[in-house]
Each structure stands twice: as structure tokens, then as C-alpha cells.
């Protein structure tokens, strides 16, 4: 009794299988990259449209059919937009609130993390769950209680109210 030998050598089978595998892998990569390029164009289109519109004259903004490239670049639109309202004050207030919140959160969260990591106290898990629950609560749920709190405290119309009220 003899053992049947394969008709094709093993090296030929492995070469054709690996060639097919490489072809499928290249096709898959190409498909993924083309999909990513298409999605990036779709997602970038509104940003490109916004930038293009910011450099147009007012009559070009409402023109139909819309034009992507303005006939004349109106860079002074940015200056007019910045000086139409007191954006310097708005920008300064936003920057101060953001910096204050970042540093206040860094300090308080670092201290709380140290306390939860190193200290063993009774009720620690309950307190930790309560903190997590309040952190998971969306701002939309707490905006009315924040407003009512600051209305009862007073000084709601002062210029620097945002520095204190910006703290969540």
C-alpha cells in the first residue's frame, strides 16, 4: 500500500495562498483608506464652508448657487466681527473662567484622588459613589438649581459674576 503524494508541491500552494492573502489585505487597506478620506472630506466640508464664508462679501454669502471661493478675500471681516461687540472682554472673561476652573479642578481632584487611594475610612465607598453620581449628572440637569442659587445669593448682574458662577 502506498501513500498518495500531492500533485502540487507545498511551496506552490503556500505561495499562491500568501499572494491571495496579500491581495486581500491590500484591497482591505485601500478600502479603509478611501472610506477614511471620504469621511474626512464630508466632515471637513462644513469647516471649509465656514472659513470660505467668513472671507466673502455680504452679497456673496446669500448668492444662489453658492460659491466656494470668494471673488475677493475680505480679511477685514474678522476685524469687524471682533470690534462689533466687546469681544476683548468676552474673551478675557472666558479665559479667566477656564483657567480658574482648570486649576480649581486640578487641586480638588488631586486631593480627593489621594484621599480615596490612600486613606481607609468608614463610608469611603458610599462617598465615592456619591461623588461619581454627581460627576455623571449632565449640566442641563443642574442649570436651573444653579440659576436659582445665584439669584438668591444676589449679585447676579455684576460684571465679574461669571468668575464665580463658572465653577460647577
Automatic annotation (TrEMBL):
Gene3D superfamilies: MetI-like
Keywords, alphabetical: Cell membrane, Membrane, Transmembrane, Transmembrane helix, Transport
Membrane topology note: Multi-pass membrane protein
A single cellular component GO annotation: plasma membrane
Subcellular location, record wording: Cell membrane
TM ranges: 32-51, 95-119, 126-148
Main location (coarse class): membrane
The protein, known as: ABC transmembrane type-1 domain-containing protein
Amino acid at each position: 500500500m502506498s501513500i498518495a503524494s500531492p500533485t502540487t508541491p507545498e511551496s506552490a500552494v503556500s505561495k499562491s495562498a500568501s499572494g491571495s492573502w496579500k491581495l486581500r489585505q491590500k484591497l482591505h487597506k485601500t478600502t479603509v483608506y478611501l472610506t477614511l478620506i471620504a469621511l474626512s472630506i464630508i466632515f471637513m466640508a462644513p469647516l471649509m464652508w465656514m472659513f470660505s464664508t467668513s472671507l466673502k462679501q455680504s452679497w456673496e454669502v446669500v448668492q444662489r448657487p453658492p460659491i466656494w471661493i470668494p471673488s475677493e478675500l475680505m480679511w477685514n471681516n474678522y476685524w469687524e466681527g471682533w470690534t462689533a461687540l466687546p469681544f476683548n472682554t468676552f474673551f478675557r472673561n472666558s479665559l479667566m473662567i477656564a483657567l480658574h476652573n482648570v486649576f480649581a479642578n486640578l487641586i480638588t481632584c488631586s486631593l480627593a484622588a489621594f484621599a480615596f487611594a490612600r486613606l481607609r475610612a468608614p463610608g469611603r465607598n458610599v462617598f465615592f459613589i456619591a461623588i461619581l453620581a454627581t460627576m455623571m449628572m449632565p449640566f442641563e440637569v443642574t442649570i436651573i438649581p444653579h440659576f436659582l442659587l445665584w439669584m438668591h445669593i444676589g449679585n447676579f448682574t455684576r460684571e465679574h459674576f461669571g468668575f464665580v458662577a463658572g465653577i460647577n
